[in-house]
Each structure stands twice: as structure tokens, then as C-alpha cells.
Amino acid sequence: MKENPMRSMPGIPVLLALLATVLAAGWLLLQGGGLVVAAIALALAAVFLMLGAYMVEPNQAAVVSLFGKYVGTVKENGLRWNNPFYSKKKVSLRVRNFESGKLKVNELDGSPIEIAAVIVWRVVDSAEAVFNVDDYESFVHIQSEAALRAMATSYPYDQHEDDQISLRSHPAEISDRLKEQLDERLTAAGVDVVDARISHLAYAPEIAHAMLQRQQANAVIAARTRIVAGAVGMVEMALAELEKSGTVKLDEERRAAMVSNLLVVLCGDRGTQPVVNAGSLY
Length: 282
Fold this sequence. Notes:
Layout: E1 9-10, H1 11-31, H2 36-50, E2 53-56, E3 60-66, E4 69-74, E5 78-81, E6 87-92, E7 96-99, E8 103-106, E9 112-123, H3 126-131, H4 136-152, H5 171-186, E10 191-203, H6 205-245, H7 252-267
Helix pairs in contact: 1-2, 4-5, 6-7
Main location: membrane
Pfam family, one: Band_7
Domain Band: 51-215
């Protein structure tokens, strides 16, 4: 079922002509005689033809059918007129949006999370929206939640590898993936997804505290790793400069002691207290 544009007649001129017909029928009725039956028939026909008038607002379409058969779609704005036997169903073509409820799902690693999204959509094929599904608005809401669940189970909450896409660290990629899944599900209803973005993302309350501790531990480990890497580089540079200048020559034991002391100074959480040895070289 695809949308088929159809033409309609301007409603105002048709209504004015029908009103003139009704007035003419009234005048004939006042004349009496054998024109009474013709006047009544003419007036009834004019009133019946007035039923073919309908209003189409901007960004709205009227889906026209005849005895259950789809005839076409009228998108011309204003007061329009078509065959009175046609039935018309109005469909809004405006851009609409809604926020899904907070869904509780298990992400890729199996941890329960809460997730919600804002979906921006509009109808692009009025015939599919009316005839392919019972209620296209309800269809959009239900399928959006299903797509959000499917997407959330395909990615982890946090990034564990450098090239891994996660829900928290890659919002643009996640939005694109969610939009793709929505388009696949809603195309049959004549709906186009304009935008889809995550509006709420958090661990479920029962594991939120434990996950916070894990994130803090990961941050501490990452910071310590960087500190140690920098400290090792500084120690290597210090030893290389001492050997290059020939200021002092260290055996392996003294070299190890110096490395240990420098690492303690550079990696410690608190400031160190120096001990001055003034009695001998060692």
C-alpha cells in the first residue's frame, strides 16, 4: 500500500454554487404548481452534495476511500470538495516527539541498567499509516520501546577496550544505531524517524553502588598506571644523565637503591622526608 496523490475541488466555490442551488429550489417551491417536487428534489440533492466538503489543515493529509477501497490522498490545504460517497480520514504530517518510559534491561555484559530515549518522528506515507497498521501512533510507541531494548542489549554500559562502542562513551554511534533499528521497524507504517537520542542512562538501583565503586577503582588504577609510567621514564632519564656526565658512578646495588628511592618519591601519595648522609659517599 503506497500513497497515491489525488486532486480535489476548491470547497468555497462549490459551496457557494450549492447554496445558490438551494435558494433557487426555495424560489421554485414558492412558485408552487408542478415545480414543487422538482424544487424539493433539487434542494435535497444540493444538501447531499454539501457533505462532500471537508477541511485540510497545513501539514495534514486526508486519506480518501470509497466503500473500503483506497482512492487517494489529498494534501491541498483549505476547504476542499470531493464525491460525498468518499470517506475521509485525517492524518497529521507534522513532526512529533515523545520520551519513552525508563526501561530496565540487561546490557551486553549482563548488568541491569535503566535506559530511556527521545524519539522524533513524522508520517511520510499516509496510506501506509492508515491501512498497514491498526493504530500507527500506538505502533510507533510500542516498536520504539522494543527497538530501544534490542539496542541496549547489544552494547556494554562502559567501554572495556579501546575500540569498543559502549552506551555511555559513544552517544553519537548509539543514536545512529537506535535510529537504524527504529527505521527498520517503522517503515511498514509509513513513519520516518527524524532523530533518536538516549535521554536517560544509569545502572539499576540494586547495583548502582557496586558499579560506582568499580568505576572509582578503574579510575584509580588508570591514574596509578600513568604515574608509574611517568616515574619510570624520569628514573631512566636521571640515570642516563648521571652516566653521561660522569658525576658519579654507581654499581648495580647502588643503582637499584637509587631507582627504589626515586620511585618511592615519585609515586608516593605524600611528600617524602629527605635523609642527608654527610659521613661518606655511601
